# Entry
Amino acid sequence: MEPANTLRRDRDKGGVLAHLERLETRVNRSHKQSEELQRAQAAENALGTKIHKLRYLRDKLRAEVKHRQVSRKVKASIANVEPDQIVDTSGKEVLERKLENVKATLQAYRFTGISAKLTSRGVCVCINTAFEGNLLESYFVDLVIQKPLWIHQHSVPIFIPLEEIAAKYLQTDIQHFLFSLCEYLNAYSGRKYQADRLQSDFAAFLTGPLQRNSLCNLLSFTYKLDPRDQSSPFCARLLYKDLTTTLPADVTVTYQGTEALSTSMEEQRASHETLFCTKPLHQVFASFARKGEELDTSLAS
Amino acid sequence: WEETSGVPKSFQEIHQPDPEGWESSKDLRSQVEHFNSELSFLSTLTGINIRNYSKKTEDLTNAEMTENSIKKVLQRHRLLGSCHMVTFQLEFQILEIQNKEKLSSVVTDFNIIMEPTEFLELSEFVSRAEEKRDLFMFFRSLHFFVKWFEYRKRTFKHFKVQSKIFEFKHIWKMKLDWC
# Structure
C-alpha cells in the first residue's frame, strides 16, 4: 500500500469524495488483476489436466500396439509350428495357385494402359503407351499417399506438362489425373513413333534431315516422290497444336523450286496437305512408296 | 491396417510393411492378401475389373534368326473382365521381335467378345478398336462409355424420364474424335 504522506496529499487535492473515488478505482483494479490471475491459474490447471489425460491415453495406446504386435508374433509362430505338411498340403497348393493367379491378373493390367504397384508410401503407377497396335514406351509416376498427395519420382519427360495436369486433378481426382497424363503420353509416343518410322523406313524420300522438336509436335522436312526426279522437292511443315493428338491440325506443303508449279504438281501439293492431316506420317509415305511401285510396274509392262 | 491403429511416429509408418511380417517370412497367405489389395486398388483406379487372365507363348525363332541374334515370340493372351455392367472377353496376339538394337511388340490380332447390347455406340467403338488393334483405346472408350451410361441413368432418374432410346450422339462425337 502507498505510504501515509501520499494519501494526505491526495486528500488535499480533490476533497474527500474525490479521494474516495480514487481509492475505489484502485480497489477495482486490484480486483480485476486478481481475477485475471485466477482465470489464468484455472486455464493452466485445465491444460495441465488435459496433458495428463493425453499422456495417459498415449501410454494406453502404446501398450495396446505392443500387445497386438506380440499377439501377432505369437499367432505367427503358432502358424509356423502348425503341421501343414501333415494335414494341409492341399491348402498350401491352393494358396500357391491363388498366388500365381493373382500375380498373373496384376500383370494383365498393363494391357489396360495403367498398372500399379503398392509401395510403402503409396503407389507407383505405370503408364504404358501404344500407337496403332504397336506397344511403345512405359512411364512411371511414384505417388506418396499423404494429404496432400505428392509425386515422389517420375520418368515423365520434361516437356510433358505434368505439373499442370497435377495442379488441376491430382488432389481431387486421381483417376482423371492419370487418364489425362495417359492421353498426353500416348499422343507423344504416337507422334514420336511416326517421326522415327519416317526417318528409318522412308529416308529415301527425304532430301534433307527431318527437323523435329523434343515434343515431336513440330516437324519439318523436304521430300520428293521420286528421288530420280530432277524437279525441286516439296517442303512440309506439320504442327500438332493439340498435344493430345497424333495427327497434325496445321499442315503446309510448299514447293521449293523457283519455277512455276504445273497443274498436276499443284494438285499433288494440295492432296499431300490433306493426306498429312488425315493419315499417320509413315503411312502417307508408305502409300507414296506403293504408288511409286505401281507406276514402275505399269511403266515396265 | 487394424494392426497399426494407434499413434504412428510418422504417416509413413502406416504404409510400412511390418518387418516381422511378409517381407522376411514370406508367408503365402499374407502375400496373397497383399497382392489382392493391390488388385482391388487397381480395379478401383482403372474402373476395370479383370477376373481371369491366361497367356500362351510360342517361340517362332528359326535357325537363321538365331544366327543373326534375332528372337521372335508369339504371345496369345486371353483376358476376361468387366467394367460395371459390361462384361467382355478379349483374345489378342502380340508378336515380339528382339534384335540386337531393340525390342518391338506389336498386337497382331485383337478379338473382342461382348454380349450384344442395345447400345449402338458401344458396338461402334468396339469394332473400331478391334480394327485398329488398339487395346488401350478399347479400355479408354469402355471407361468413358460406362461413365456416360451412369450419368445418363442418374439424369433420367432425376428427371424421371422413361426412355429406351436416347440419342446422346454429340457427346459421343466429342469422345470418339480422338480415337
